[in-house]
């Protein structure tokens, strides 16, 4: 006898629709399904666990308020990644002045001790966290999330050529670090 199993995307679509109707139980289930991916993207972009946790929380607060704006023209996960990227970048900009007093942003990747605390990260993720801020942002947005350099240039308020150059810089650093580890 065949069991009519729901595809995971069908379940996610159902949760999104129910959340759009104000169903808090569905929103909690949506959170359970998506929070790890959202947190991982925030951590890759912000390179700081505490800031990633704060940004992740902000994503879900905004998600609750903005879920009605999701119109289904793209996959929900694509829309959620876009929202997450925008919130993480906004979070970075908002906190940059304070953080600049604490660390140099040219070398704002996490230090080895902080990276060691992220025990569940794989080797590449640990190396990505070491990248300087702009190189890390461009690498994650282009290399991991699949944004085009033109989109990244708008998101980060930089020239397209700068985005390409930062991506090349990140790849070069990652390759050097990988070969030396």
Provide a short characterization of the protein structure:
This is RNA polymerase sigma factor, sigma-70 family. The protein has 181 residues and is mainly alpha-helical. It has nine helices and no strands.
Summarize the structure in words:
Pfam families: Sigma70_r2, Sigma70_r4_2. Residues 1-5, 98-108 and 110-121 have low confidence and may be disordered. 75% of the residues lie in helices and 0% in strands. It is built from 9 helices and no strands. Helix 2 runs antiparallel to helix 3 (49-66), helix 2 crosses helix 7 (133-144) and helix 8 crosses helix 9 (160-180). It folds into 2 domains: 1-102, Orthogonal Bundle (Rna Polymerase Sigma Factor, Chain: A), CATH 1.10.1740.10; 104-181, Winged helix-like DNA-binding domain superfamily/Winged helix DNA-binding domain (Arc Repressor Mutant, subunit A). The radius of gyration is 18 Å and the shape is elongated. The longest helix has 27 residues, at 76-102. It is mostly helical and 181 residues long.
What brief labels describe this structure?
181 residues; RNA_pol_sigma_r3/r4-like; transcription regulation; RNA_pol_sigma70_r4_t2; 2 domains; Arc Repressor Mutant, subunit A; mainly alpha; transcription; elongated; Rna Polymerase Sigma Factor, Chain: A; 9 helices
Topology, please?
Blueprint: H1 8-20, H2 24-46, H3 49-66, H4 76-102, H5 112-116, H6 123-130, H7 133-144, H8 149-156, H9 160-180
Helix pairs in contact: 1-2, 2-3, 2-4, 2-7, 3-4, 7-9, 8-9
Overall structural domain count: 2
CATH topology of the largest domain: Rna Polymerase Sigma Factor, Chain: A
CATH architecture title of the largest domain: Orthogonal Bundle
The Rg value, from CA coordinates, equals 18 Å
State the major sheet.
Answer: none
Structural class: mainly alpha
Shape: elongated
Helix content: over 70%
**How many individual helices?**
9
